[in-house]
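Deviations from the work plan: none for this task. Representative record:
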Amino acid sequence: MVDHCSAPGLLPLSHALDNMLSLIKPISECEVIDISSTLGRVLAEDITSPVNVPPNDNSAMDGYAFAKQSLLHSTTLTLIGRSMAGEPFKGECIAGQCVRIMTGAKIPTGCDTVEMQENCHVNGQNISFTSTASKGNNVRNQGEDIAIGQQVFQKGRKLSTIDIGVLASLGIDRVHVFRKIKVALIATGDELKNPQQQLSEGDIYESNSQFLSAMLSTLGADIIEFGIIKDDEQAIRLAFIKADELADVVISTGGVSVGDADYTKSVLEELGEIAFWKIAMKPGKPFAFGKLPHSYFFGLPGNPVSAVVTAHQLALPALLTLQNSLYEQPLVLKARTTTILKKSPGRMDFQRGIISHDSNGELSVTTTGSQGSGILTSMAAANCYIVLPLEQGRVAAGEWVNVQLFDKYLQ
Ligand code: AMP
Ligand code: MG
């Protein structure tokens, strides 16, 4: 693997991504599970529909069903019965007749149209129609949502809440999904403390593994928490060996920048094949990626904002690939910046912003203020990244910029 730390330039984000994704071999093991447990899981099979949805022509309204032809001769029809959801009318409805029908009920044989009850006048068995529906009105046709044999979902789809409803509507209760990926999280740093602990001088509360864990659970991964590991060569070695045995992916934060990176770097070089990259992005310059004997390794920077942005922009696409999930490029919009944006050419910036509509109905974006890579609240207040290209310098207020909306993994 090329060590881009020793290369003269910084590695562009797209190169790092291509390089990483080409090295990931998606998992192959799958299991059959109940659809109720499939939220965020990745389909290991194509789903074709075993049924028509809806299974029969049925009514979209409460009203009266008849053959449209009948109303050409008279505005009054004779009521001969009723069709309820789950209790269809059994006979045949002929010219001059109509059937009381409820929403979702099967359209009786001989009928092709439904008039809603608000447009009907009832006088015993005689039903008069004050407005005439056109043929086929208020009829939901058999198979109009999904036809029998139609492919509904493709292998690799990450199942959403709505997808679970669609599977249920097909009468499917169990599906093949890829097994969950196992991700070990390690926070390195002598200064890190857990919430129950007293902070000594120079200490800070550990936050990276908490939001990473939350992000990974939205991804549908099993998380193995290693907590805080001291900047100690043997402690780091033992943690990495154990994590590699248990997980498909090991993610550490901290210790990848020059200086205190030494133990992490030397241990990783001893255990596996890891490249230390300096990526042309801000925040998040130092980043490590590679292979341990049994797992993939991501070394994220310690600064919380850098850790989130590299996790989101680099680790997440790789994890989705490992899961067999079909990766969708993030949606990029154009918006006008309301303020100047400080920027020096040389790195791609992921500044944090709030996108909204201005008084002209155009999209505008406002920076969340101080963009230091330790300022996690700059991320919490934001709903998007303002993505400024590598070569871009300072941006004047009122200019159009690219904006990437925060997706479900950050919400
Ligand atoms: P490092 O990458 O280890 O040099 O750390 C860079 C900065 O991020 C330092 O200010 C660390 O204290 C901070 N940091 C490192 N790890 C964490 C963590 N898990 N949670 C919060 N801050 C961290
Ligand atoms: Mg550190």
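The pocket of magnesium ion (ligand 2) is lined by residues 188-189, 254-255, 260, 302 (CB under 6 Å).
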